[in-house]
From TrEMBL:
Keywords: Signal. The keyword Ribosomal protein does not apply. Coiled coil: none annotated. It comes from Eiseniibacteriota bacterium. This is T9SS type A sorting domain-containing protein. It comes from the Bacteria. Residues 686-747 form the FlgD/Vpr Ig-like domain. The keyword Nucleotide-binding does not apply. NCBIfam families: Por_Secre_tail.
Length: 760
């Protein structure tokens, strides 16, 4: 390899443009999907490695299809730039939902109108975005009438339990459920089993795992004929309904109990919150049940917030100790704001009664989303109309219920136009990742942003932004570029960066280090474990970057990324190429052995003119040694190239077989002038000539206009074989221009001519 193996480092200017998108550190977001037409209502779940999976409805083909994307914790799109299709069958596919499958991928369900009515389908994707089940999905509910509004929860074994609103019974709706296995097979009866056959409508199911492969399901239920109550059922892993068909009451007080959210609790129970109008206006109520369905709080739930005016659209997070965090839209101050609360496992309010204000800025704050941090608090984001457009804001509330960031939150994205319908997931380090609809480009695209636990946007860890081939080398090296950790400045806390490389066996090893230089980006040249070779699987080498803290006890790690090296440098032209005619249509060739470390073989080509092109039609032989003996037509030229292990061919050495001259290296039987080698030449080309007796020799170089360029030999020489070299210069020592030149020699009174092509 020609490139030195020493790794060099330098800081790049802040204006350097990375090859990946990556998280930005200003509230504008990073593009996730920007395909033509609109992308709507993204929903996300954690990918298990600090990034996120998301699904969305997509109009790029004219009608709604379901697509998915994965972004890693560095903010880079892992799958195709604009996502991968989950289902692009005929008709409409809409309302996708997803869960992690527990094996590095996801299960997705959606409404599907490829037939005469809406049905429910599902698909599973692995961590690389490959569809694992029937290409356009597995049919879960396809009875007469519409099956809509699917919801799902993981079964813990690669499959999912899916419930939906079902109109197979006519004008009123029921709730059905199906279990699809990790292999994509429906487990329960075809088209699902009914959870409630009560009168009037049952709709809008929500699910949580029971911790044992089954699920708890809650839904809106109008069986009393006047208002909505909440009912719930338990579906076991074996498909049983221990609480009976029809379910049991969760809440049936005066007014409506509607729009329940549910979360898994420990010991096989569940947590619920919902909108409740028992007092005349909308309030937020909650409940906790055990594995048997027994209500552990008041019979019809506890008031999470019953402040004046309306509270609605509550979202729920388990607090890790069988209590709950709840956030909602709150109009107690006339316009909608964001409030939140924390109830412990007994239903006791940990924070102040009726919750704490997360944001009370002017204008409306809507659609709160919430995740837990790693220190007993929560991070929220919401749609915010305090300005001229709808923007996204975020806030961190600590364990004590105190907002940590600016009073009414920090802008998560305040780009032009509207940012809508955020979906928020934890980033595994105490922060969160939000994905949303964004109309800054007129069409509706999907953007994302990461917020750290301290309110910083972007990444705390270094971020690999590109791994690219080092150009014009002999392979074996890539350039790794990364964005500095936020802990490098303004308060220095990075002792050093270390570059790690993964070996083919999977082990990681540190291969280089660099002290911080306060640069925005860094770049290293790193050696790879293999090169890309045509015709075989492309080998990629994985790297990651560690920012080691000054205390030397902890580090911030980039997400791994990989690149490949390409050998783009051809071998040197074979030297000393000589072909001797042996008579009877045979010739013998000899040349010097290649000194290239990645040399593979030689290829030999035959042509009738010196300028013929080596290609598949002129190819004759593959040779691994440095000699050849074989047949050739009189007057034909031979070209020889060296080939390296990556398929790169050298420039050709070429020669016309010289007349039979007796024993090679001894006194020839007659005078001859051999072909120049190498030819074409860049710096020096050598000609072999022979004399059968002592004789006068005159050898000169001429250009195409017949003008003498220089003298190569003049004088009397003894019998035997000799060499003459031309360095590509004229008689004054000036380098001549590229082109065709002629060597004319007078040997033993006979005239000989050879062509030499000089190239740059």
């Amino acid at each position: 390899m020609r490139l030195l193996a020493v790794l060099t480092a330098f800081a790049l200017a802040a204006s350097a443009v990375p090859a990946h998108a990556g998280w930005g550190r200003t509230p504008v977001g990073t593009p996730v999907v920007t395909a033509l037409a609109d992308q709507h209502r993204p929903l996300a779940v954690p990918d298990g490695d600090g990034g996120a999976f998301l699904v969305f409805a997509d109009l790029r083909a004219g009608g709604y299809d379901v697509y998915a994307q994965r972004i890693n914790r560095a903010g880079n799109r892992v799958w195709s730039a604009d996502g991968v299709p989950v289902c692009s069958a005929s008709g409409l596919q809409d309302m996708p939902r997803l869960v992690a499958d527990g094996a590095g991928g996801i299960v997705v369900t959606w409404e599907d109108h490829r037939g005469t009515s809406y049905d429910v389908y599902a698909q599973r994707l692995d961590g690389d975005g490959n569809r694992l089940w029937t290409p356009d999905g597995v049919l879960l509910g396809g009875a007469n009438g519409d099956q809509v509004d699917p919801a799902l929860v993981s079964d813990g074994a690669g499959g999912a339990i899916v419930a939906w609103t079902d109109f197979r019974g006519g004008a009123t709706s029921d709730v059905y459920v199906q279990h699809v296995s990790g292999a994509g097979a429906p487990v329960l009866a075809p088209n699902g089993v009914i959870l409630s056959a009560a009168a009037f409508d049952q709709d809008s199911p929500a699910l949580a795992s029971d911790g044992a492969g089954g699920a708890f399901v809650v839904w809106n239920d109008f069986r009393n004929g006047s208002n909505s109550d909440l009912y719930m059922a338990h579906l076991t892993a074996g498909g049983a309904l221990p609480w009976g068909v029809g379910g049991v009451v969760l809440a049936n007080g005066a007014g409506d109990q509607i729009s329940a959210s549910i979360a898994e609790a420990t010991a096989g129970g569940a947590l619920f919150v919902w909108t409740d109008t028992r007092a005349g206006n909308s309030d937020i109520y909650g409940q906790r049940i055990n594995a048997s369905g027994a209500k552990l709080w008041n019979a019809n739930g506890l008031a999470v917030c019953d402040a004046s005016n309306d509270q609605q659209f509550a979202v729920l997070q388990h607090d890790g100790a069988d209590g709950m965090f709840v956030a909602w839209e709150d109009a107690r101050s006339s316009n909608d704001n964001i409030f939140a609360h924390h109830l412990d496992s007994t239903g006791w309010p940990v924070w102040q009664v009726n919750g704490i204000a997360v944001c009370t800025a002017p204008g409306a704050q809507l659609e709160p989303q919430m995740v837990r941090d790693t220190a007993g608090g929560i991070i929220l984001c919401w749609q915010d109309q305090r300005g001229a457009n709808v923007d996204l804001y975020t806030q961190h509330v600590n364990f004590e219920g105190a907002p940590v960031w600016n009073g009414d939150g920090l802008p998560l994205c305040n780009a032009p136009a509207a940012q809508l319908y955020p979906s928020l997931v934890p980033d595994a380090t105490g922060g969160a990742i939000a994905v949303w609809e964004d109309s800054r480009n007129l069409l509706v695209d999907l953007y994302a942003q990461r917020v750290l636990e301290d309110g910083t946007l972007g990444s705390s860890e270094p971020v690999i932004t590109s791994i690219t081939d080092v150009p014009n080398d002999n392979g074996g090296h890539v350039a790794i570029t990364w964005q500095a950790s936020v802990f490098e400045a303004p308060v220095p806390n990075v002792f050093q960066y270390r570059l790690w490389r993964r070996a083919p066996g999977g082990q990681w090893a540190a291969v280089d280090s660099a002290g911080p230089t306060l640069g925005a980006f860094y770049v290293r040249n790193g050696s790879t474990t293999a090169d890309s070779t045509p015709g075989v699987t492309t080998p990629r080498t994985a790297f990651k970057v560690e920012a080691e803290a000054f205390d030397r006890t902890h580090s911030w790690w980039s997400a791994p990324d990989s690149g490949l090296s390409l050998d783009s440098q051809p071998p040197a032209t074979p030297a000393g190429f000589l072909v001797l005619s042996l008579g009877n249509g045979q010739a013998r060739a000899k040349w010097a052995r290649s000194r290239e470390a990645d040399f593979w073989k030689y290829r030999m080509y035959f042509g009738q003119e010196w300028w013929f092109v080596p290609n598949e039609f002129t190819f004759r032989h593959t040779i691994v040694d440095t000699t050849w003996l074989g047949d050739i037509e009189p007057g034909w030229w031979i070209k020889l190239v060296a080939v390296d292990v990556h398929g790169n061919e050298s420039d050709a050495a070429f020669a016309l077989p010289e007349p039979s001259v007796g024993v090679e290296g001894g006194t020839p039987a007659m005078a001859f002038l051999g072909a120049a080698s190498p030819n074409p030449m860049r710096e020096t080309s050598t000609l072999r000539f022979g004399l059968s007796r002592e004789s006068d020799v005159h050898m000169r170089v001429y250009d195409q206009q017949g003008r003498q360029v220089c003298v190569l030999a003049s004088g009397r020489l003894p019998a035997g074989q000799h060499l003459a070299a031309w360095t590509g210069r004229d008689a004054r020592g000036n380098v001549v221009a590229p082109g065709v030149y002629f060597v004319r020699a007078t040997l033993e009174g006979r005239e000989f001519t050879q062509r030499i092509v000089r190239v740059r």
